[in-house]
Amino acid sequence: MKSVRIIPCLDVDNGRVVKGVNFLDLRDAGDPVELAAHYDNQGADELVFLDIAASPQAQKTMVDVVHRTAEQVFIPFTVGGGIRSLEDARRILRAGADKVSVNTAAIERPELVTELAEEFGRQCVVVAVDAKRAEKGSGKFEVFSHGGRTATGLDAKSWIQEVVQRGAGEILQTSMDKDGTLNGFDLVMLRELGSECNVPLIASGGVGNLEHLVEGVTKGGADAVLAASIFHFGDHTISEAKQHMKEAGISVRPHQ
Amino acid sequence: MTGVPLIAVLDYGIGNLRSAQKALEHLGVEALLTDNEEIINRADALVLPGVGSFGRCISALEETGLRELTKSAAQEAAEGGRPFLGICVGLQMLYERSEETPGLKGLGVINGEVELVSGVDKLPQMQWNLLKAENHLMFEGNEQESWAYFVHSYAAPISSHTVATCVYGKEVCAAIAQNNLWATQFHPEKSGKVGLQILENFVSLVGVDS
C-alpha cells in the first residue's frame, strides 16, 4: 500500500525557526527542537530542517539542533542547507539525522550526489530542486540555486533525471513561483517533473490550506507533501491535515 | 540479571547508527555504540543496524573485524541465547546472500536470498506502512493498527520466520524472529511510539531464557 507522508518544514536561522514569504520576509516561529517534538506528537510522518543561514557558525548550531532532536524525536528527519561535502554530511548524519538534502552544492558539483550515495546509501540523499516556470508557452521549468536567488539555466526535468541517475533517493521539489503565496502547489510543475521520476517526490511551495495538500497528491501525483506556514502558526494541526486527506481517500498513517 | 541492561549497538562505521542508540537510551537502558569486543561480549543484548547497500554493510562489517563475532552472536540468539536485533540491512545481512550484491556472502544465519521488491513503480519504499503482524511478543502492547517506517528496495523472502509483513506492490517481509533473534525491515527507532514499544519488547527479552 502506498501511503502519503506529511512533512512539516522548519527553516532554521542560527538555531531559531523562521519561515520566509517568497524567501525574503522572515518571521520567527520558535525553537526547532521543541517544534520538532511538537510535530512528532501531532503525528508528523517526517521532518525537514532547512538551515537558511548556511554559514560555518550556523552549521555548528545545526549539528547541535540535530543532536538534541535525535534524543527526543523518533521519526525520520532530513537536514538541508549548507551541506557542501561528504564531511558536512557525515557530521549531520552522525549527529542523528536520517537524510541530508543538497541543492546549490549539487548544482555546482553534481559528483557530490554520486559521492553521497556511494558513501551513505541513496536512501540518505535528498536533492532539493527549486524551480520556476520558464518562458511562457515553453512548458519548461528552470532550476534556481542559492535559495532561489540565482537562475542556473538548467532544465528542471533533465536535472532531476541526472541526479536520480547519480543516486538521489528522493526529490524535494519547490515551486519558486508558489513558495510563500499560500495559494497551492504548482500542480502543472508537479505532474510534469514527476512524470518520469522513479524515486519518491516531495511537493513543496504554496500550501495555504488543507485542500492544497490533497491536490498535491490527487492532481500533482506527489508521494509526500511538505508545508510550513499552515502548521507553524497554528492554522491547522498535522492530525487535522491527516483527517482531511483520509476523507479525500488518501492513505495516511493515522495519528497514533 | 541485576541493574540496567547493557545493549551494544554494533558500530561498523555505517550511516546514522546514533538513532538506534538514542531510542534505546530513551527506554532507560544503557546503550553503547561500539566496535569494542570486550563490551560486545559483556553486553546483555546486541543490535545490528544497517543502512545503505548490502555489499557496503557486509564489507564494513568485515573491515571492522566484527563479521564472525556478529554471526556467532546471531546464531546464539536464534538458538535461544543472548537477544539480538537486526534492523533494515541488519536484517538482510542475516541471510545467505542478496540480489543487490551478487557473489557476496551474507552472514548465512538464516537460509535464503534477499530479493529486489518487485511490482512497484517507485523504489525505495520510503514511507510508513501498515504492519500485518502475527501474534508475537515483538508486537505486544501495540494497537491493532501499527504503522512503521520503511526505507528499502530489497526484502527477505517470506518464510516460516516471518512474523510481520506489509503490502508494497505485493506482500513484503517486514519482520522475522527465531527465538531471541529478532529482525525488522522497518526502522523501529524511527517508527514513533509503535517502534519504541517494539524496542521495549526486545529489551524485555534480556535475562529471559527461551
What attributes does this structure have?
heterodimer, A: 256 residues, alpha/beta, 12 strands, 26% strand, B: 210 residues, Rossmann fold, eight-stranded mixed sheet, 13 strands, globular
Could you walk me through the main structural features you see in this protein, from its secondary elements to its overall organization?
The complex is a heterodimer of chains A (256) and B (210). Chain A has 256 residues and is an alpha/beta fold. Chain A has ten helices and twelve strands. An eight-stranded parallel β-barrel of chain A has the order 1-4-5-6-7-10-11-12, surrounded by eight helices. About 4% of the residues of chain A have low confidence. An eight-stranded mixed beta sheet of chain B has the order 2-1-3-4-13-12-11-8. Chain B has a three-stranded mixed beta sheet with strand order 5-6-10, with no helix packed on it. In chain B, strands 7-9 form a two-stranded antiparallel ribbon. Classes of the chains: A alpha/beta (256), B alpha/beta (210). At the A-B interface, helix 2 of A face helix 1, strand 7, strand 9, strand 11 and helix 6 of B.
SSE topology:
The complex is a heterodimer of chains A (256) and B (210).
Chain A: E1 5-13, E2 16-21, E3 25-28, H1 32-42, E4 47-51, H2 56-72, E5 77-80, H3 86-94, E6 99-102, H4 104-108, H5 111-120, E7 125-133, E8 141-145, E9 150-155, H6 156-166, E10 170-175, H7 187-194, E11 201-204, H8 210-218, E12 224-227, H9 229-232, H10 238-247
Parallel strand pairs in A: 1-4, 1-12, 4-5, 5-6, 6-7, 7-10, 10-11, 11-12
Antiparallel strand pairs in A: 1-2, 2-3, 7-8, 8-9
Helix pairs in contact in A: 1-2, 8-10
Chain B: E1 6-10, H1 18-26, E2 30-34, H2 37-42, E3 45-48, H3 54-63, H4 67-78, E4 84-87, H5 89-92, E5 95-98, E6 110-116, E7 125-130, E8 132-133, E9 147-152, E10 154-155, E11 162-168, E12 170-178, E13 181-184, H6 192-203
Parallel strand pairs in B: 1-2, 1-3, 3-4, 4-13, 5-6
Antiparallel strand pairs in B: 6-10, 7-9, 8-11, 11-12, 12-13
